[in-house]
Amino acid sequence: MYIPGYYEFVNPGKILSGKYALENISTEFKLFGSSRVMILSDKVLEKLGQVQILSDALISGGVKVVEIYTDIPADSSIEVVNKIAELYRKANADSIVALGGGSVIDTAKGLRMLISQGGTDILKFVGAEVLPYAKHVPFAAVPTTSGTGSEATAVAVIKDNGRKVKMEFISQFLLPDLAVIDERFTTSMPAKVTAMTGLDALTHAIESYSCLQKNPVSQCYARSAIELIKDNLITCIESPNDRKARLAMANGSLLAGSAFSNSMVGIVHAIGHSLGGVCSLPHGLAMAILLPHCMRFNLDKCRDDYTEILKMFVTPEEFVAVPASQRAEKCIEVVTAFAHSAAEKAGLSLKLGDNKINRDDFNEVAQRAINDGALIVNPKAAGLEDVLAILNAAY
Amino acid sequence: MNRLSLFRKINNKFKSLVAKIVMLVLYRAIKVLAREDSRIMNEFLTWKDGLTVALEASPDGTAIYMQKYGDKLKRIKACSNVDIRITFRSVDAAFLVLTGQMGVARAYAEHRFMLNGDICQTMSLVRCIDIAESYLFPRLLTKRILRKVEKKEFSTLRVYRKIFVGV
Fold it and tell me: What pLDDT was estimated at residue A164?
């Protein structure tokens, strides 16, 4: 097992996972001494009645829901966070529950940061590990997709609309106190979203297992995540109401989130973020398309890690049947086949060309990708030409 | 009780001094290479005019401040409001990086420094430091600490001559 010269690991908050997990949030909040909750979610979940389910669970448990904000866009922004902070203060709330995907949870992280630190603008807290500990604001994150792992990460990505850039905030004080996985919220995802978010979680696990910041604890989390995703993603796509498989996937996503929060992600995310920014390609789909190509790019630096990952995908008999020198290549082959199988069952194509991506945008995508923070921990240095070669191969 | 041992005091002073000298050399190297090396020149062009950078060997420790001014990089007085602030978490961490025992990417992965400011903007600065290090440190060392050793466009001797003599 790899032991770096030095590493740090921040555990995720308390995990509440399974049946009636939502109903336990109020008792946890009471232990924190809070009783006036603000709920953050989005319009779709409100329409589906899921915000009401959460609100009912909280009120039944004896805490007050003093404000509900559901007007959160797909890309969370500084302006939205600043606006919600005003409402939070006006309602005299003392805790936050975020229900949704990555954008809602990242918005809640931004809100909590602003309330905790004081002030009216979160832009002054941009950066890595510079946020001081301040007032504690109890915060529970309830994910509705099994992909971002945001409920277990110390990272928030929030857009600065003024400058049209996504700002990254990294601090252990961004971690939610509670990561709540309730099986009621796991079965409503359509097949395409299930496949995209699931492959996003797989990418988190594989990148965190093999990037520069990996450590023995993050690799344990990543290993468990890979095994859960490998065993359950296809079932979730084929049988969307299989609650056991859905819960396993949600746990896989959480574990992958915690893994990458501590070891970071690499080139797949660097290029994926840029494809999202320039071409509006959904993040999970970008991950699924790029993962095999980026694994091939990193192969010479990641042979040992890929060999280990192969063990997680195949039986011991299949593993020993592959010559030792070919196991890393076989790993890429197996991961590629898995991603294609999931995509095919969900009706997705894993080619950039089939997803309305224009080659003319590649230069801008590559230029943005080399300035993405994720590239610094990629095991292999990548320049403009390398990124362009990956994009062309994925076309 | 709350007294630093003599050994630790000397150790800290020595490492602070070395860090200060190497940070100055690094600043001078980037300043020189921004006019001589095509890759750093290109990176430098993408920096906004007036961009300020602080490099701090430890919190409240020795530091240098620089600013892009037109097509040049210049040193400025200490200021609290900078665009990018890289602060090593201890002078020991700064010593590891500045004496070529550890690359910037590895230092980031090991949480050796804190970053205040836009991470995207900092990536360009990191690339400049990597290229500058491939001139300043011997190849034996750069092969160990850099993920990719960039080709030199001219000799190390020329860079050192320009840093110290100015011609």
Answer: 67
- CA of A212, closest CA in chain B: separation in Å? 6
- Which structure tokens are listed for A154? 């110390």
Q: Which residues contact A305 (CB under 8 A, 6 or more apart)?
A: A2, A209, A210, A214
Q: Does A167 touch chain B (CB under 8 A)?
A: yes
Residue B167 pLDDT class (50, 70, 90 cuts): low
Nearest Cα residue to A336 out of A294, A366, A308: A294
Chain A touched by B110 (CB under 8 Å):
yes
CA B21 to chain centre: 11
A14-17: strand order across its sheet: A14-17, A178-181, A139-143, A95-100, A36-40, A64-69
Both tokens assigned to B129: 């430091």
The residue of A131, A167, A371 whose CB has the most chain B CBs within 10 angstroms, and thus the best one to mutate to test that interface, is A371
Give me the CATH code for the B13-161 domain, please.
3.30.1050.10
Expressed as residue numbers, the domain containing A282 is 191-393
Q: How many domains does chain A have?
A: 2
The whole-angstrom separation of Cα A110 and Cα A170 is 11
Structure tokens at A166: 């996504």
- Interface ipTM above 0.90: no
CB < 8 Å to B114, chain A: 127-130
For position A118, which CATH number holds? 3.40.50.1970
User: Which chain A residues contact residue B146 at CB under 8 A?
Assistant: 381
The pTM assigned to this predicted structure is: 0.93
pLDDT 10s digits, A15-31: 999 999 999 999 999 99
Cβ neighbours for A227, distance < 8 A, ≥ 6 positions apart:
A252, A312
pLDDT 10s digits, A231-266 = 999 999 999 999 999 999 999 999 999 999 999 999
Evaluate whether B111 touches A129 at the Cβ level (below 8 Å): yes
- Mean pLDDT on A32-36: 96
CA distances from A242 to A198, A225, A229 (A): 15, 19, 14
At A61, the pLDDT band (50, 70, 90 cuts) reads very high
The per-residue pLDDT for A132 is 85
Residue listed under structure tokens 């400011």:
B117
Interface residue B126 vs chain A (CB under 8 A)? yes
Cβ within 8 Å, pair B118-A167: yes
Residue A293 domain-assigned (yes or no)? yes
Mean pLDDT, chain B, as a whole number?
93
Residue A298's CATH number = 1.20.1090.10
Any bridge partners for residue A308, and if so which?
none
Q: Do B119 and A379 touch (CB under 8 A)?
A: no
